[in-house]
Amino acid sequence: MKYYYEKFTLSDADFDKQGNLLPFKILEIFEKGAIAHGELLGAGEASMKEKNLFWVISRLKYKVLKPADKKGELTLKTWPLKPSFAGFLREYVLYDENEEAVIKASANWLTLSRDERKLKLGQQVFPDMEFSDEINFDKRIIRIRDFEGEHVKNIIPKKEHIDSNGHVNNKHYTDFMLEALDGLSGVVDSFQIDYVQEIMPGDKVEISVARNENEVLVKGEGNGKKHFFGKIIFM
């Protein structure tokens, strides 16, 4: 199964006052689709545990193509590209009920060992299968560089932020970002987050922010570790 499709119903709670579909909801949809597709491909959580591995995202970017309907339904289409030595890209597109693309996205996935929590490159986790070469962004997604920002908040993850892999789930990083920004300040054009080092239970994360004309940068760090960098570009 090269492609995976799933429908999701939206509600008012999935949007902010500017009409943005919340980053948390977008990443939640992507996560559910990736998990379901991974299970069908034989690379789900149970299979990965047998290999002493688990999936992590190192970088994710999405681009808003048109507003989503607050009372509507979105269809997710997702697919992995052929794995490389360093991991693989998974692509996502959300379509509205008129089959028009609302959001396109790309995420780079890696494998970590469960016991040592170390990066394991070149792991064969998919069975032999046909991969798509369809890609959403023509250019490679450039990592967000470190920056000097204003420290605005300290965050300690709560129990509900921790997933089955024992760390903060990727979608909750968006909660930390928006909490530090006191919400989104405009209509989102694109959103990117680079996951550097996982946030573990009890970690104190210092959130810093830098603002430019139509761009805001957010980073989380603590105890000598860089945890994540985020970038939001507004229309």
Description:
The chain is mostly beta strands and 235 residues long. Helix content is 14%, strand content 37%. The protein has 3 helices and 10 strands; from the N terminus they run βααβββββαββββ. The longest helix has 18 residues, at 23-40. The model has no long low-confidence stretch (mean pLDDT 92).
Which regions are unreliable across 5 or more consecutive residues at pLDDT < 50? none
Order of helices and strands: EHHEEEEEHEEEE
Report strand %.
35-45%
Taking strands numbered 1, 2, ... along the chain, how are they ordered across the largest sheet? 1-3-4-5-2-7-10-9-8-6
Category from helices, strands and their pairing: mainly beta
Oligomer: single chain
Let me know the number of strands.
Answer: 10
Mean pLDDT: 92
DSSP helical segment count: 3
Write a compact overview of the structure shown.
The protein is 14% helix and 37% strand. It has helices at residues 23-40, 45-50, 172-181, and strands at 4-9, 53-64, 73-80, 88-95, 101-113, 150-155, 188-195, 205-211, 215-222, 225-234. It has a 10-stranded antiparallel sheet with strand order 1-3-4-5-2-7-10-9-8-6.
Task: Please write out the topology.
Elements lengths: L3 E6 L13 H18 L4 H6 L2 E12 L8 E8 L7 E8 L5 E13 L36 E6 L16 H10 L6 E8 L9 E7 L3 E8 L2 E10 L1
